[in-house]
């Protein structure tokens, strides 16, 4: 019997909590969060990681050079496709004007994409953070750690991942 | 009053969960954020209400409120408070509610963690979780009510099954439930991904951590269960292929298969239907395990429950869940097509696929052997027992193949491995394999399976050590770090891969522990004080145990008969060992149990069972003429390695799970900076990969298992 009053209070509390959004119209987000990765970005990241793994496998002696070059070529293409898709999505969003971030967009986007492609093809993927840096960089543009000082795409290593 | 409030809370939880489930699906369908928010709050509310119900039961136990049927049947006044607390999951009625509580906690955690991401998946995922919550709450209210009252208040309860009065037994069931219930979350995400049609890589990213969490708990639970059987059942072993043991193994096997094959999907875009199927199958296996344990249909050491209604309900639940999942998968088949084909039989993909087939083969054999007695009983009316010989005959060879694959997988390359590279990589491990075979054979190891297990184990360990060595060396060279720093960074950079390797080390050590059983020694003898029993260890030395006598005492709730031995190893006194037989008086009728004596060294256990004593002793007589007793003395080589291996497995899984190795999310600030810089391009790449690096290895062969 003594449980009646607390029980009623409990039921009331639960009902208020649950009905509150419906009554007041308060909403949970149904939106795609800007912070979340898009599918193209996921694919790009996976390709970049695969690239690092190929590096690792090559340096660990699991791949011979011919296989290594072939695989690297193939994965780089995947990465570039993903980057293209991401760019297309980004541009579409820009065209719709629904991003608040458009203010920060650099002028020369094309040049930057080109640089990115170059960095993936022959630049230096940072062994710390996986950020692809243009050729000739000595420090990572993203995390600031020192980059291996080697020329050519085949010779930097992703540090074991 | 608290128990009464708990019961009220359980009643309130039912309509809230049904409401939330309905609103979650409608909110998802109509894209109505208010309905979705209401549904998510329902999940939180149900969690709080179920927690209150759980507190109610614990309060009833601690307060000796025997007017409750459940407390009366599973407790007694003189039961230790620790076991009164664990009364919550000691019996069927409590444990099904406990199941619901765990599920609610995980559901709330999933909703909370995804409050600002995966929003398109969340309504349906939450809806699926709430549907299962409503299911378990309904069972607790209408089928196995934990708050049912007797109508009178007995002065004392019937007591807890003495075999459950063991610390392993207080932690084994909750761990099992944590493993089972946490798998509900990936299943819910999988269903949601199918409903929404968003079957790209993201739902896998959202759930992989959950699956690993669930796997971690399942692993621990299986090991805890083995430990309990070893210490408490007193027959000398840890695994009997008992139906309930098997039930706990099945979801583990399928989840292990998934953890491996998901890597093929991540890195190669293949096996999407297969992986979806494995998630569904693992989840069905968790329900199947509950069905086996809780229906009591099959004779088992866990025959704590016999309830046909429950059996039908769980079978129905499995049928509906499996049916709905299959329909959804078939509906979405076009979205689940493979992006690539297998290129070569000699590739890491093939090794993974073979691993999957082996694990599922074991799962199938175990299911078949477990269900066979039930099927034959249904068809012919007579029960046929399927014993350990069947399971060992089928599973040991498959286990050995898996062991070999554990070594081959990490070394073989993706896509296509070249024979020349394979040769180079397998040269040293192969030499170790051959060397150990020769060494062990010449040392007198003739048991084929044991010989293969130890040699393959050495092979796998060599490969893993080489992997660590190469990784550390490469990193140390490139980063100019000292080897130790390089080693730590190596693991931190790709926790999943290196954590997976550590899990493999643990599994190898456990396998060696299992193989030790080939050399178990046992003697059984009736003795009077002063007599000595000798047993030779397979490692060559000899134990001599001199029986000193029995003493019987009355301790609260039980009569305890203790036999004392002094132990000599090769003639050198190494101390004493006691073994007990207990007559538990706290249950009606009094029940005898044995409490074995175990003396553990690094490589073996000396295990002493007090098999029979004179009834007079159990009744309290300390007279000299009743001192004759029968003992079983066993030497179980390498059993301790099973527990060490288990610890290593847990450590490896924790490394894989450690936060930071988490589901890829971008730190808000850095993410926006990256966007501001150029909107998802150059800087974004670095940022995102950073979030990935620690965790999503695309080539790691080795997550777990």
Characterise this structure:
The complex is a heterodimer of chains A (161) and B (705). Chain A is mainly α. Chain A is built from 4 helices and 2 strands, in the order ααααββ. Chain B has 705 residues and is an alpha+beta fold. Chain B has 22 helices and 9 strands. In chain B, helix 13 packs antiparallel against helix 14, helix 15 packs across helix 16 and helix 18 packs antiparallel against helix 20. In chain B, strands 2-3-4-5-6 form a 5-stranded antiparallel beta sheet. In chain B, strands 1-9-8-7 form a 4-stranded antiparallel beta sheet. The two termini of chain B are 47 Å apart. Chain B has 3 domains: 160 residues, no CATH class; 252 residues, no CATH class; 121 residues, no CATH class. Classes of the chains: A mainly alpha (161), B alpha+beta (705). The interface between A and B is large, with 84 and 95 residues.
What are the SSEs and their pairings?
The complex is a heterodimer of chains A (161) and B (705).
Chain A: H1 4-24, H2 39-59, H3 65-96, H4 109-122, E1 124-125, E2 132-133
Antiparallel strand pairs in A: 1-2
Chain B: H1 2-30, H2 33-62, H3 69-74, H4 81-85, H5 92-113, H6 122-143, H7 167-182, H8 184-196, H9 202-233, H10 243-268, H11 272-295, H12 308-331, H13 348-380, H14 388-411, H15 419-442, H16 448-479, H17 483-493, H18 495-515, E1 521-527, E2 532-536, E3 542-555, E4 558-569, E5 572-584, E6 591-595, E7 597-600, E8 604-613, H19 615-618, E9 629-637, H20 639-657, H21 668-678, H22 682-693
Antiparallel strand pairs in B: 1-9, 2-3, 3-4, 4-5, 5-6, 7-8, 8-9
